[in-house]
## 1
Amino acid sequence: MPMNEQPPWGKKKPNPPEDFLAQLIQAIRDFFEDNNGKPEKRPAPQDPGGAQEEPARGGGMLAAFVVALIIIQLGMSSFFTIAPGEVGVVLRFGKHQRTTEPGLHFKLPYIEQLTKVNVEQVRKEEFGFRSSGTGEVSNIDRKGYDMESLMLTGDKNVIEMAWIVQYKVGDPVQFLFKVRNVPQAVRDASEMVIRRLVGNMDFDYVLGNRDTLAAMARQELQEELNHLGAGINVFTIQLQDINPPEPVKPAFNEVNEADQDMMRLVNEAEKVYNEVIPKARGSAKRIVEEAHGYAVERVNQARGEAIRFQAILKEYHGAEQVTRQRLFLETLEEVLPKVDRLYIMDNAQHPALPLLNLSAPAPTPPQATGRAKPATTPDAASQPPASQTPPSYLLPR
């Protein structure tokens, strides 16, 4: 039974939402059937008045549906959302209008255009190799990239270098509209900077100063990209491998071994030098200081003796006899303790008068042995040998 035909048991009750939906579906069906060229099959209308109102009502429903679709599309295209880590660049008739931050925003439909740019993503460009795969496991392919990795150093050596340039978007407007192909610009500028720096350095310096070379390359690459207006910030430059080409690797390894042997010998020689030379310098300095101390001591002693002699001379002029006697007694006090035996000679007595040294320790008696001592005469025992005769001191009168 057609949708617009009345039921035989009477007129159906009006239901505006259902009638509107049924009419809208029928209008859409009729519209597509007319476009496909199929003949329209409709039952003969029973009411002449209802037959005239049916086409007008179907056309109105189709127009309302089209208008509703347009309104929904306009509403959906007027609001947009920017995710975290992104910015939105809004153009009005092709001219930059504004840059939006993350969140919900509004734009004029069909007049303003939106382009989203991820400013937190770390982008990278690889030189001398290509890596594939994500996560901890990745495949590295080095074949076919010799033109990128081969370069000439300042000392005319050929080396192979692989590096990575990591960067982020700093200015979204310049990134989108200033340079046509930003990745290619990064590759060209990076290769130019690296080749120029390596060409001004020796091979040994490049091997031993990778961090310095990477820092200089990052700074110069950033300046070059700022001059181009690429709108990116170079995050880092990582030098992966710096090796000689495969055909010259054996010779290069031999040269490195010879350099290492030379450095080892130089280090050993410096070790011996550091052990011997400081010790010799310390000994020389000690001898010099001892000589200076001895000189100062002798000079001070001589000055003290001179001052003492002048003081004694002054006293001698004042009391000659007392000074002579005091000097004589002081000399005896200094000399007598060093003498083992003392002989006092008298002019009236020819033989020497031995004095007993009471301060000397008593001699220990010899131990008894089986052998008998030879007998000695009293005269020979009482006279000392000529070689042991002690010096005599003549007391002044």
## 2
Amino acid sequence: MSQKDYKISIYKSLIPIIFLTSLLFFNIIFFENNDWFGEYTFHYIILLSALTALLIGITENIKFSKIIYSILKNIKSILTPIIILFLVGALAGTWKVSGIIPAMVYYGLDMVSHKAFLPITLLVSTLVSLATGSSYTTSATVGIALVAVGIAFNIPAGMTAGAVISGAYFGDKMSPLSDTTNLAPAITETNLYTHIRYMTYTTFPTFIISLICFVVIGLNLKTTNLNELNDISTLSTTIINDFYISPLLFVVPLLVIFLAFLKFRPIIVLLIGIISASILAMIFQNDILQSINQSNLHSIFQAIFIDTEIHTENPRIERLYSGGGMKGMLWTIYLTIAAMVFGGCMDAIGALNTLTKSLLNRAKSNFELFLSTAASCMGVNIIASDQYLAIVIPGKMFKKAFKKKKLSSENLSRTLEDTGTVTSALIPWNTCGAYHYGVLGVSVFDYFIYAIFNWLSPITTLLYAAMEIKIKKIKF
């Protein structure tokens, strides 16, 4: 019996999901700082949910070997992302000791207004993501620096991270260089540029509303008083005393963005970014390297593989001066693997297929079809913990239904992006949510409400569907 032949009831399909969400809510309500099982609370909850799915599969006479094969296949599919996660950790470490991130913070403190910071963060992140087509690159480069600048301005890290992620996912949706922007039209057999044009109807209003919200939030932030201005001046002085700060340091980030724009492989781009930053550190930051280890080369290796602790007398800048390295990405990588185990179990027992088909069968009207598609995308993001599956599975399942209702394919491709692409960053155990937490150091729970573009996008696309605005029909 092939995996496609497995039949499982909707009720049994929901049991692992109910178990997962119940444990998560229990943890959030009764345990502070998500420490029910210590640092790896999410990991254990997801693995226990995977075990629940596995036991259900065994009771349904699904071969244990088939479930294990599905799990291994899922894990194999993320080997490249795991390598990228390790390299992102190395990039963060080398960009700190080379002075690149401190330079971004230094110039940011000097040039950006306190009240204009959040909308500027949104716009900068948007431009970088459009140029690179990657939310990952955006977070790993300007995102880290912007969060550090925000902390220096006494702006909650969740606000800054929300603005970074909102901008990062604008480009992840709209850039022709983005993998998801190419994947959605490919699955639905839609022209790439037709797909991008059609997304502008929902994406630009959502972005403008997000920008207005950040302007309003910025204007209502507590005014920086004289003491805080002195603190910011002190931070700038600390940075320039500790590091060699020069616009020359921006050569590396510009090179990384340029190579990403040319669609070089992410691993190659990251390696070039790491090597280039290491060279800059050896040339310009000898004092910093000596403070870490007597051997400059050992200091570079420590920044790449472990982490760095650069001494500073200013406690407000400790976060900027510490962390990074591949070791810092292990939490994220373990969570990603746990999520793939859960997704593999759910896929193997047929739960994923059953839930998606159930949504499809309930779609009678046009609006219900859009709603079912959106729910399916978000559901796959939650269950399978993978952004690409959240586009591929609903895209394949709902393609015929859209044709049957004489709805043009770009309606489906747009809905896949408006719901599948952007909501991935809002789920802590999703590969995207875990990644942004690992890179920015800000949890999903802290940035969720401020990732306005991400949670508003599904609402906008469903409002358009409900009011039949820009819903293109097939003409025969």
